[in-house]
Write a structure and sequence with these properties.
Length: 411
């Protein structure tokens, strides 16, 4: 399937958009809720593929779990099931079977887990013999995905010896680790993070009700649209909090470079396009890697030269996002330079060609970051558009609500 996106005739835009709930917070809340054996509700839980598979896994009576393309669920559930009595298998999509998990599996084994690889060594699917873990002290490379670290931290309080986690080297995606620790505190768990060592003693979760805030990652596409629209464009985004647990809330400050200012209200935020700076952008996204596609595409469309670093984890996401961005930006005439951890564009490496469709590589963020290009390119096409269901199922309807036209076609 292909969607052809046509921008509104009037480029001065506005509207009120109800963003989805944060899937990062939802998935953590679900694991903590299960570990606390709480009977109280989780309110405003995300309605998307990644969270749906987590809910299904935690409520199903089956010992065989298929999480599809949900990487967060694979990591969090691997730790959770290792610590839950029973014989379990966990698998996923073909892409999931290509995403490494040995770092987490090795760490769990060192804490007493029994896990076997069912197919390729170091990759899902896994066979797990769940039991109460002993815990103890382990070392972990701080530059690995923060989801490995969060997975371990959430089961740490239930371990007989607790957990002392020593993070070696550079620690990336720190806001996601802080999010996990803050939520643990809300569920009654005390932790100590001093330099590169996180300690969590054996202790009991407090069963509580919990409300999930709206998703700052999803807001980035509306910041992008606001930046690409005419000055004076304004959007209301309810449910976002200034004092947010989400690292991607940094998008508010970052988009000031493109002339998008943020006003915090009781309801959420209002964003408005004012006079931009738009000089060369130097940005380190080591703590906000999920914003990479939004910023790369925005810079290109506004002809802003850039160097974006801190992209070490992009190669093991839903796709190799560095390669995907380079390929699809080239279709719009922008020729990017890449390293293993950065993307850059000098501003003059451009051709006049436009090719369609934009491929999404089964990656929701590719679809959502490139759709706003319709404001600069006529009738841009997005292949496999329904991939947005992974995190933001209502994205296309929200675009229509602010007068984008979307025409369905086939490859």
């Amino acid at each position: 399937m292909i969607y052809e996106i046509k921008a509104p005739a009037c480029k001065k835009m506005g509207g009120k958009v109800q963003l989805p709930a944060s899937k990062s917070i939802s998935n953590r809340a679900l694991i903590m809720h299960a570990l606390s054996q709480s009977k109280q509700p989780i309110r405003n839980i995300a309605q998307c593929d990644d969270t749906d598979v987590m809910v299904k896994a935690l409520t199903s009576h089956s010992n065989a779990i298929d999480i599809g393309a949900a990487g967060t669920s694979m990591r969090f559930l691997t730790a959770y099931l290792s610590n839950t009595p029973g014989d379990w298998t966990i698998t996923g999509s073909e892409r999931m079977k290509q995403r490494p998990i040995s770092i987490l599996v090795d760490a769990l084994k060192n804490l007493g887990a029994e896990i076997e690889y069912m197919e390729k060594e170091g990759f899902p699917p896994l066979r797990i013999k769940g039991k109460a873990l002993q815990g103890g002290e382990i070392h972990l490379d701080g530059s690995v995905s923060s989801q490995y670290i969060s997975a371990l931290l959430m089961v740490a309080p239930t371990m007989a010896k607790g957990l002392t986690l020593i993070l070696d080297g550079k620690i990336i995606s720190q806001p996601y680790i802080r999010m996990t620790l803050k939520m643990l505190e809300e569920f009654g768990i005390q932790a100590d993070w001093n330099d590169n060592v996180i300690r969590i003693a054996h202790q009991a979760y407090n069963p509580i009700s919990y409300e999930v805030e709206s998703d700052w990652s999803a807001s980035s596409y509306w910041y992008q649209i606001c930046a690409l629209a005419e000055m004076g464009s304004e959007f209301q985004l309810p449910g976002l909090r200034q004092e947010s647990q989400q690292g991607d809330s940094a998008v508010a400050k970052m988009f000031e470079h493109f002339g998008v200012v943020t006003e915090y209200t009781k309801e959420g935020v209002t964003i408005k396009h004012v006079e931009p700076t738009k000089g060369h952008l130097q940005l380190d996204l080591v703590n906000q890697p999920d914003l990479a596609q939004t910023f790369v595409v925005t810079c290109c469309l506004l002809n802003v030269s850039f160097e974006i670093t801190g992209l070490e984890t992009l190669k093991i996401k839903e796709t190799d996002r560095i390669v995907a961005l380079k390929n699809e930006c080239a279709k719009l005439g922008y020729h990017l330079q890449e390293t293993n951890s950065s993307l850059s564009w000098k501003g003059n490496e451009k051709t006049a060609t436009q090719e369609s469709p934009i491929l999404t590589y089964k990656d929701h963020r590719m679809a959502m970051a490139f759709a706003p290009a319709a404001l600069c390119f006529p009738n841009i096409q997005i292949e496999d558009p329904l991939v947005v269901s992974k995190s933001y199922p209502g994205y296309w309807d929200d675009l229509k609500s602010v007068s984008f036209e979307i025409k369905e076609g086939t490859v």
